[in-house]
Design brief:
Elements (H helix, E strand, L loop, with lengths): L1 E5 L4 H11 L3 E8 L5 E9 L3 H13 L3 E7 L2 E15 L6 H9 L3 E8 L7 E10 L3 H15 L2 E4 L4
Antiparallel strand pairs: 1-3, 1-4, 2-3, 4-5, 5-7, 5-8, 6-7
Helix pairs in contact: 1-2
């Protein structure tokens, strides 16, 4: 399992707890602290069944820990990527909560920065959205639909 953790004290321990709580046996943990604010962690563990894996994933999601990939017996079981978007327009005035809620139906808005010079001027919002690899196209269609509806200029990141 590959994770992305915020570089704050205790975050690695919090990421390991769900495995232990749900009966997993941790085999190895490799983490790499770089100069970024996120720490990449790769952990290997044994679990008894799919239900335990689902519980572990659920607990990690509740803690806002990004799971970027899960390999099961050497094969990719789950893969997630983070897409970045910049929305320019009256983003706040056109119900930003609605925009985030709609995006969260497909992915998870994991980070958001807002620049709003004044209430009458256009704002810009940069969003990072975590999405399952298989739902990337669906997310792109939705963000384009939202931007058409709300008259936003959309700047999308290039996918790697």
């Amino acid at each position: 399992m590959k994770l992305q953790l915020k570089d704050v004290p205790g975050s690695l321990l919090r990421a390991l707890e769900p495995v232990s709580i749900h009966g997993g046996n941790i085999i190895s943990v490799i983490h790499s602290r770089g100069e970024r604010e996120l720490v990449s962690v790769q952990m290997s563990f044994e679990i008894k069944d799919q239900a335990a894996l689902d519980l572990i994933k659920g607990d990690l999601k509740k803690q806002n820990i990004r799971v970027s990939e899960i390999l099961l017996e050497g094969k990719r079981y789950y893969s997630k990527k983070t897409l970045s978007f910049i929305l320019i327009g009256h983003v706040i005035d056109t119900d930003i909560r609605d925009t985030v809620d709609r995006l969260n139906e497909i992915g998870l808005v994991s980070d958001m920065d807002v620049v709003m010079p004044s209430p009458e001027k256009k704002s810009s919002v940069m969003m990072n959205v975590d999405v399952d690899d298989k739902r990337t196209e669906e997310l792109n269609r939705l963000i384009n639909e939202i931007c058409r509806e709300k008259n936003f200029l959309l700047i999308s990141s290039l996918e790697g």
